[in-house]
């Protein structure tokens, strides 16, 4: 089997069709046993070569179907399952077989419903009815021919057999209508369930985002930041470090007192907007509480962390909050570095101590935990 053929066979839809084809082959095998039994009992009114030719035609037809499945050509057809084609081939071959067993035809007429059941779950009702009508016409034609030309005395028996087959096929046609209607309802329910699942999945995602996000700034909240930071620490490789900074907006209480809480909210939002522009996509920034923010930089060193915090400080000093203009915006930052095995709480405490020093030394500056003075 070539790689392309194997690829077609591995497709879920093709695997299902191949399983159905294997079931059809199993049914053929059982019918062939009946053919051989009829031949052994002397009921098959043809010689051995004719029987061999009949079986050879069946084998060739099934090889054609198998090649269509394995090559994927069936996927380009209107009916990739080839159900109607398989039913028609089976009806033709079965009729050829029953033509040679006129005396046992009534005992074997039940094979026609067996063939039709193969299409009950796949064929559209009108297609199924068309195949059922063909099966009945084939059987009725054979019985009529034999009753008229060969065994006139068996005409009532042939008529009864034809009527019995007609009743069976009519019942199967009604059953196929019911099955297809049931299948359509199940498909509609499945579509509805999938739609509900997608809706629930979207709602769950929104809830997760709400649980992880600060409503005012749109940044991560403290709880989610701590989860992300712990996860980043666990994945650190030897030699890698994380940059950590606690950032506090200067004189925030004065902004609220002089300009109102709306101005304070605009200042917080202005910082979040500035940070989105200054930071990389994989940098993590969260609102830590009140006017305090926390920043985590992956694959960082002292120089990069310092440059990033200074860039944020300068950009924020030039920000102009919408609707509520506030003069003299500034921030202070305390910085720390983490390596593999470091404790996050201890690093946050070190950054907080550096931030305290920055506030104590006059604000509007970035100080590092690894130094005793200003990073500049």
Structural class: alpha+beta
Poorly predicted sequence stretches spanning 5 or more consecutive residues: none
Helix-strand sequence: HHHHHHHHHEHHEEHEHE
Mean pLDDT: 86
Domain count? 2
The N- to C-terminal Cα distance equals: 70 Å
Protein name: diguanylate cyclase
Keywords: Membrane, Transmembrane, Transmembrane helix
InterPro entries: Diguanylate_Cyclase, GGDEF_dom, Nucleotide_cyclase, Rev_trsase/Diguanyl_cyclase
Transmembrane segments: 21-44, 50-70, 82-101, 107-127, 134-152, 158-179
Could you list some keywords that capture this structure?
376 residues, alpha+beta, Alpha-Beta Plaits, 2 domains, five-stranded mixed sheet, 13 helices, 5 strands, rod-shaped, membrane, EC 2.7.7.65, transmembrane helix
Chart the SSEs and their pairings.
Blueprint lengths: L2 H8 L1 H29 L7 H24 L11 H17 L5 H4 L2 H10 L4 H25 L5 H58 L9 H13 L7 E8 L2 H8 L1 H18 L5 E6 L2 E6 L4 H16 L13 E8 L5 H17 L5 E3 L8
Parallel strand pairs: 4-5
Antiparallel strand pairs: 1-3, 1-4, 2-3
Helix pairs in contact: 2-3, 3-4, 4-6, 4-7, 6-7, 6-8, 7-8, 10-11, 11-12
């Amino acid at each position: 089997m070539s790689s392309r053929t194997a690829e077609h066979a591995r497709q879920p839809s093709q695997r299902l069709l191949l399983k159905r084809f294997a079931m059809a082959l199993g049914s053929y095998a059982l019918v062939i046993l009946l053919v051989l039994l009829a031949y052994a009992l002397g009921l098959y009114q043809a010689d051995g070569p004719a029987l061999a030719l009949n079986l050879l035609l069946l084998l060739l037809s099934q090889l054609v179907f198998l090649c269509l499945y394995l090559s994927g050509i069936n996927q380009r057809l209107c009916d990739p399952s080839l159900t109607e084609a398989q039913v028609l081939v089976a009806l033709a071959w079965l009729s050829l077989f029953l033509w040679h067993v006129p005396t046992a035809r009534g005992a074997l007429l039940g094979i026609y419903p067996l063939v039709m059941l193969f299409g009950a779950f796949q064929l559209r009702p009108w297609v199924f009815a068309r195949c059922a009508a063909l099966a009945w016409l084939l059987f009725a034609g054979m019985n009529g021919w034999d009753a008229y030309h060969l065994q006139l005395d068996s005409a009532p028996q042939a008529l009864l057999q034809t009527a019995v087959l007609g009743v069976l096929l009519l019942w199967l046609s009604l059953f196929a209508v019911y099955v297809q209607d049931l299948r359509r309802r199940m498909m509609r329910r499945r579509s509805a369930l999938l739609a509900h699942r997608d809706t629930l999945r979207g709602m769950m995602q929104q809830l997760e985002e709400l649980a992880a996000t600060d409503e005012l700034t749109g940044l991560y909240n403290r709880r989610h930041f701590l989860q992300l930071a712990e996860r980043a620490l666990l994945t650190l490789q030897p030699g890698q470090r994380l940059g950590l900074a606690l950032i506090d907006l200067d004189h925030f209480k004065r902004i609220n007192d002089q300009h109102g809480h709306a101005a304070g909210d605009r200042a917080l939002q202005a910082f979040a907007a500035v940070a989105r522009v200054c930071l990389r996509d994989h940098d993590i920034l969260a609102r830590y509480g009140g006017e305090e923010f926390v920043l985590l930089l992956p694959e960082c060193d002292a120089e990069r962390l310092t440059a990033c915090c200074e860039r944020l400080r300068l950009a924020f000093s030039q920000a102009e909050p919408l609707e509520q203009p506030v003069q003299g915006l500034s921030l202070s930052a305390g910085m720390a570095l983490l390596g593999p095995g470091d404790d996050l709480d201890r690093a946050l405490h070190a950054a907080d101590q550096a931030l305290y020093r920055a506030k104590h030394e006059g604000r509007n500056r970035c100080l590092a935990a690894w130094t005793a003075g200003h990073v500049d």
